[in-house]
Hints:
Elements: E1 2-7, H1 10-22, E2 27-30, H2 34-38, E3 46-50, H3 55-64
Antiparallel strand pairs: 1-3, 2-3
Amino acid sequence: MKLLLRTTDPTVIAFAQALLEGEGIDSFVMDVHMSTLEGGIGLFPRRMMVADSDLFMARAILADNGISDGV
């Protein structure tokens, strides 16, 4: 798995997941439950991971839709 996206904005994660899912690319979001530890202030970014073989296409899809990778 490779890091595709890092952001503190949950709406960006949801949008990116929808875009990738529409293209048949599986993704996994890490650090989703960190808000429990941080008190919900959005201090820790969430990370979206994709398979190594999907990384190039996933980056192109996000770039085409104006999503910066934040990495």
